[in-house]
């Protein structure tokens, strides 16, 4: 979720019902070097609590030092360690999911952070079920992390080899949840409130983590809470209300210190807007226009085009 769960998007998700959030992951080396750009990833306002700051790296001592610096800057509610990212540029540096095939190093990283934090805040971890289909080792990794003092574990139900293809294996997640002594949070293929309820009922997980689905549908948090309370799906969010949130997101991005000006913010937002518009009526035409936006006025023009041409059309239900 790097480049997605910035402070602006987290604000919107919080308003829509997200209970606990995690920042974009940050490099331990960047934190230690006091890189100001890296430090921006760790910022959050008080109203976003509880929020965790996620670190990645392969050196337990340096990871621990980075965690201490983060706590000194602005005490988060927890520190999260990323052992799940499948992206090549992270894996090639022995970070993220690469440590799933090097459990001694994984243990040294987890123990190093726990030791450095020394009880000031909880330390959690995010993993995948294994490196590939021949080395699914999430239950073993969970035991290692428990023994290192990790206090909760989120598990994405795919291997690193799968990346984001295929289906998440919730049987492995459930096995971990039954065996673990700490809370297990399940993640993968959660697209609706009904999905949340089904996984809570059919597995022993303590919670559900939603990631990529929120890029298209941040309303999922509100929908999930409604479904859990009533066993009914709420009315779909209208096209008009979707555009209102999109325009607000763009305005907040322009006013944030993250992007450095309106044009840079809007160019950076293009990919985000593509995700929002998946399933919109006239999505192909709308997305083509969004590839060229450079200002808030451009986004308003696209929204007006969408409202004028597709107001009465139905939204496509959210899908993987």
Task: Describe, in plain words, how this protein is organized in 3D.
The chain is α/β, with parallel strands linked by helices and 320 residues long. It folds into 2 domains: 7-230, Alpha-Beta Barrel (TIM Barrel); 239-310. 48% of the residues lie in helices and 12% in strands. Strands 1, 2, 3, 4, 5, 6, 7 and 8 form an 8-stranded parallel sheet that branches. Helix 8 links the parallel strand 6 (153-159) and strand 7 (184-187).
Features:
8 strands, about 325 residues, eight-stranded parallel beta sheet, alpha/beta, TIM Barrel, 15 helices
CATH architecture classification of the largest domain: Alpha-Beta Barrel
Gyration radius, in Å: 20 Å
Q: Low-confidence runs (pLDDT<50, min 5 residues)?
A: none
**How far is the N terminus from the C terminus?**
16 Å
The level of helicity is: 40-55%
Secondary-structure-based class equals alpha/beta
Please specify the SSE layout and strand pairing.
Elements: H1 7-15, E1 21-22, E2 26-27, H2 28-32, H3 36-40, E3 51-56, H4 60-73, E4 78-83, H5 88-91, H6 103-117, E5 123-130, H7 138-148, E6 153-159, H8 170-179, E7 184-187, H9 193-202, E8 207-209, H10 213-216, H11 220-230, H12 239-255, H13 262-276, H14 283-290, H15 296-310
Parallel strand pairs: 1-3, 2-3, 3-4, 4-5, 5-6, 6-7, 7-8
Helix pairs in contact: 4-6, 6-7, 9-11, 12-13, 12-15
